[in-house]
Structure to design on (446 residues):
């Protein structure tokens, strides 16, 4: 009898895991809670650091999954996991020979940082809003006119004790740099300021993009965290920060404030961790067996991880983990048969 | 008039709504590479003048870029143009050129 693997979550990590399993002759079922494959990438416009349209990555991947004949169950949310089964929210239990958890991350809810006024003032946005507006082809202020000044704020919902998110989300610095450049391209007359605590450019081509943003796009980088945003009489926002490099307070009014929101642990993780042996790290992401050769293994035999379910990662890293998890699954199933 | 001994300080904040950035933009246009500064402080660490005076090249050019010109010319005059800062800058900025440029553009402040 052929072995069956259940993949929880049909983002890039889950899709790549299914494809790599298929390549080794192993059938899998993708269980996806939303109504479509692709995960967060469905909502992104262009990908850093190359400005490649997200659809160019997602399209071929989806086609390959379809061509490979992988069974996909959308609208199916996994509630509990075990090495030999997955319990769906509907109550249905699917049996399996191995389970790969690829359920990804959640976006930080910017309303929690009340002092920045997201959801209170019309001209406060998140990086996810900007991606959506770019996809809809219309970045504009509520009145329809072009912004003259935009501020980006790094680390919203990351590296912040106050909201219980101590970790660095890694991809948001480069997202902020990418979007600052996109804004400058859309509105060449606009002044763009990025307020940061540290600039973390971890990937290939990222530091180069940062430098290009500074030198060629005239993006101003100010080291200091915005303390609060308040409305002005003319419907703009006043922001305050310390320009820590000159040791003086700084204030300015802007037309748009973009909050660079971080990645937080997926809300399913807590329920998955009820499987004996499975556990979360202190930041809520699922903790792999180890952070080296066992990065895609859970502490429980038969349960595997791939992608951002274990930590913030970019697309390439998430897909590589999908392929690596498939390899480890094949080894595991081979040893048992 | 009775002097009560109290005074009111000018606000210290860098106010980007009020500052006139025309000169800063002119400087940047001539040397866009200055914006690539990551404020590492290598220039200040190696600065001969900075060892003997309060001169802080990084701080002065950052203030200038925010439209705070007062005293910049006098500060830059402390530079002896030895060029050590240019040797250490990891971003390859022509720091000595920046000193000359700021002196040229901001003489009247
Ligand atoms: C604002 C922003 C911009 C970004 N831009 C880029 C970029 O330009 N380039 C880049 O390389 N990376 C970018 N990233 C990172 C990128 O989004 C991630 O690397 C990628 O989405 C991770 O894929 P994943 O499959 O691990 O998770 P996800 O994309 O989160 O997919 C997880 C899937 O699992 C499903 N799921 C969740 N829980 C369950 C459950 N209980 N049962 C069933 N299904 C479930 C979800 O519906 C989803 O479809 C960005 C991130 C952010 C926050
Ligand atoms: S990647 Fe940058 S913005 Fe994101 S949490 Fe880390 S330091 Fe902050």
């Amino acid at each position: 009898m052929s072995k069956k693997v259940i993949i929880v979550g049909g983002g890039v990590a889950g899709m790549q895991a299914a494809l790599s399993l298929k390549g080794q002759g192993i059938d899998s079922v993708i269980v996806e809670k939303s109504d479509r494959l692709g995960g967060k990438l469905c909502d992104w416009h262009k990908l850093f650091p190359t400005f490649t349209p997200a659809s160019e990555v997602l399209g071929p991947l989806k086609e390959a999954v379809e061509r490979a004949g992988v069974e996909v169950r959308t609208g199916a949310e996994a509630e509990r996991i075990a090495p030999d089964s997955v319990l769906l929210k509907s109550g249905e239990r699917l049996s399996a020979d191995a389970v790969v958890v690829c359920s990804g991350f959640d976006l930080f809810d910017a309303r929690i940082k009340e002092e920045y006024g997201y959801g209170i003032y019309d001209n406060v946005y998140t990086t996810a809003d900007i991606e959506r507006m770019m996809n809809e082809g219309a970045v504009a202020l509520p009145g329809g006119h072009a912004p003259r000044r935009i501020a980006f704020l790094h680390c919203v919902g990351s590296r912040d004790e106050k909201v219980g998110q101590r970790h660095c989300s890694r991809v948001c610095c480069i997202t902020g740099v990418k979007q600052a450049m996109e804004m400058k391209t859309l509105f060449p007359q606009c002044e763009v300021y990025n307020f940061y605590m540290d600039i973390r450019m971890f990937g290939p081509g990222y530091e180069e993009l940062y430098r290009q943003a500074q030198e060629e796009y005239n993006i101003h980088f100010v080291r200091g965290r915005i303390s609060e945003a308040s409305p002005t009489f003319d419907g703009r926002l006043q922001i305050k920060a310390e320009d820590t490099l000159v040791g003086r307070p700084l204030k300015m009014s802007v037309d748009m404030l973009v909050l660079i929101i971080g990645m937080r642990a997926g809300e399913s993780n807590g329920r998955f961790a009820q499987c004996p042996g499975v556990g979360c790290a202190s930041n809520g992401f699922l903790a792999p067996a180890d952070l080296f050769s066992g990065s895609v293994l859970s502490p429980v035999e038969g349960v595997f991880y791939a992608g951002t379910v274990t930590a913030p990662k970019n697309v390439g890293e998430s897909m590589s983990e999908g392929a690596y998890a498939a390899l480890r699954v094949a080894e595991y199933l081979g040893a048992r048969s | 008039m009775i002097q009560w001994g109290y005074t009111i300080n000018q606000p210290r904040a860098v106010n980007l709504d009020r500052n006139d950035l025309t000169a800063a933009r002119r400087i940047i246009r001539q040397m866009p590479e200055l914006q690539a500064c990551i404020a590492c402080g290598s220039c200040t660490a190696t600065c001969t003048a900075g060892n003997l005076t309060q001169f802080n090249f990084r701080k002065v050019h950052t203030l200038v870029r925010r439209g705070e010109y007062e005293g910049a010319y006098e500060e830059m005059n402390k530079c002896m143009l030895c060029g050590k800062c240019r040797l250490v800058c990891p971003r390859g900025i022509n720091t000595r050129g920046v000193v000359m440029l700021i002196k040229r553009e901001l003489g009247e402040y």
Observations:
- The interface with chain A takes residues 12-17, 28, 32-33, 35-36, 38-39, 58-59, 62-63, 65-66, 68, 91 of chain B (CB under 8 Å).
- Residues 22-105 of chain B form one domain.
